[in-house]
Amino acid sequence: MTARIGVVTFPGTLDDQDALRAARLAGAEAVSLWHRDKDLKQVDAVVLAGGFSYGDYLRAGAISRFSPVMETIIEQAKAGMPVLGICNGFQILTEAHLLPGAMLRNNHLHFICRDQKLRVENASTAWTSDYEQGEEIQVPLKNMDGRYVADERTLDALEAEGRVAFRYLDMNPNGSLRDIAGITNEAGNVVGLMPHPEHAVEPLVGTGRTDGLGFFTSILKKLVTA
């Protein structure tokens, strides 16, 4: 039996279907999860997809963090369940304090949409093991509130503990401190990033590359060998 990967839909989520398709392409059973349901339907891992949940009112991810489904996800993530937050999902993870720091408005105050080059800084998490440390990949990026910030002590700890998972290359598209594009928690089961790997899983669409598929094959291999 293959692993079951759940993808949460909140009001305003845009990329849930893309994430579900990416999970299927990797060989997993993709399961839709609804924000008002605490039941995770016995999934083995969860993806919080991109979009503008609840219209980004108050702050991006601030309302979604209190959705019923998040009560269970927070509990399960702390117990070791793999969770991936993409774009708005990353924002939700910071609001839920599953990842440190916060996401602010892009420093240029404009929405940005482009293909973005990244460097893999940590290839030992549940979601990145199919990459090599130092590998360069390219995936789409689209956000308005994508600037990652944290206090210096937190940033220093992330660097020292190898918890910066991805870093922007060639250009910093949103003013994120230390060019951070994604981070992981101490256990390596929770990963958040602003770029969209689910849009780079087939050569026909997105970047025309499959650089993002490794997120989903990584977690599938981890789950089926656990």
Brief descriptors of the model:
nine-stranded mixed sheet; two-stranded antiparallel ribbon; 11 strands; purine biosynthesis; 226 residues; 23% helix; PRibForGlyAmidine_synth_PurQ; 5 helices; Rossmann fold; Class_I_gatase-like; alpha/beta
Explain what this protein looks like in three dimensions.
The chain has 226 residues and is α/β, with parallel strands linked by helices. The chain has one domain (4-225): Rossmann fold. The protein is 23% helix and 25% strand. It is built from five helices and eleven strands. The strands form two sheets. The protein has a nine-stranded mixed beta sheet, sandwiched between helices. A two-stranded antiparallel sheet has the order 5-8. Helix 1 (16-26) packs across helix 5 (213-225). It catalyses: N(2)-formyl-N(1)-(5-phospho-beta-D-ribosyl)glycinamide + L-glutamine + ATP + H2O = 2-formamido-N(1)-(5-O-phospho-beta-D-ribosyl)acetamidine + L-glutamate + ADP + phosphate + H(+); L-glutamine + H2O = L-glutamate + NH4(+). It is found in: Cytoplasm. Its EC number is 6.3.5.3, 3.5.1.2. Part of the FGAM synthase complex composed of 1 PurL, 1 PurQ and 2 PurS subunits. Its main location: cytoplasm.
